[in-house]
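Sanity check

After download, print the first record. It should look like this:
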Amino acid sequence: MALSIIVMGAAGRMGSILARLVSEADDLSLAAVLERPGEEEKLAGFRASGTLVSSDISTVLPKCPGAVVIDFTAPEATLVTARAASAHGNPIIIGTTGFSDEQTAELEELAKKSLVFRSANMSVGINVIMDILPRLTALLGDAYDVEMMEIHHNKKKDAPSGTALLLADPLLKAKGLTRDDINTNRFDVREPRKHAEIGIQSLRGGDVVGVHTVYYMGPGERIEITHQAHSRENFANGALRAARWISTQQPGRVHTMQDVLHN
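Expected C-alpha cells:
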C-alpha cells in the first residue's frame, strides 16, 4: 500500500519538487497539497489527479489519517502545521530552518507525544560529513583552527544557514565549545582570531542551492571538506526517505537524518 504524503507550500521551490517526486514514486501517494490562503489556485492542476488542495491543514488532516506531512516553509507556519499534525496523530517531516530557541523547544515538546522529524539538511552527504567531523577534529587537535564558509542563493533569509549550524554542532562538541563560541562577524573588532572559537562566514548570491566548506588550518597545511548541493532534489529525496522511515518509529524525541542513516 502506498504511503500517503501531504506537501506544505507545494507551489514553492522545495514544495513543487516534493510534490512531483511523490507523484512519480510507485510507493508514495500525494494525498494533499497546501499553500497560503489566497494562493490555492497555484495548485489547481493537482485537483485533476484527485489530490486534495487547501490552505488549512486542520481541515485536511482528518481526511488523511496517517499521512506524513512534509514542511519546508517558514518557522511560524511550520509550527502551526506541527501543532495540527500532533493533534491529529500525523507524522511530520520538517526541513524548515531558522527556528528560535523557543520554537525549537516547542517542537521538542510536541515530539514527546507525536512523530516529529527535523533536519536542517536532508542530504545524505551532509549527514555523513557530520559523522566524520568529530573524529577528524579530535585527531588533528588544538593546533588546527576550524572555520566554515557557506554560500546560498540571494533569496535565503537566515544566516548562518541551518546547515552551517548543523555542521558546527559536532565541531563545537569535539572542541568543548558552545554556539556562543561561533564568530560570524570579524568586521567590527580588530583583533587576532581567538583560539577557542569557530568562525562561520555567509555569502549570498544568484541561484546557488548550497555550498558548505569546513576548513582545518594548521601548521603548514590546510584541509578542506566541501559539500555542494547541485539540485534541491537532493534534499527532497532525503525528506522522502525520512517519510518512509518515520512511520515505523515511536514518539519521544525529535528524530533526525542521523537516526535514518544509523537505523
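If your output differs, re-run the checksum step. Summary of this record's structure: The chain has eight helices and eleven strands.
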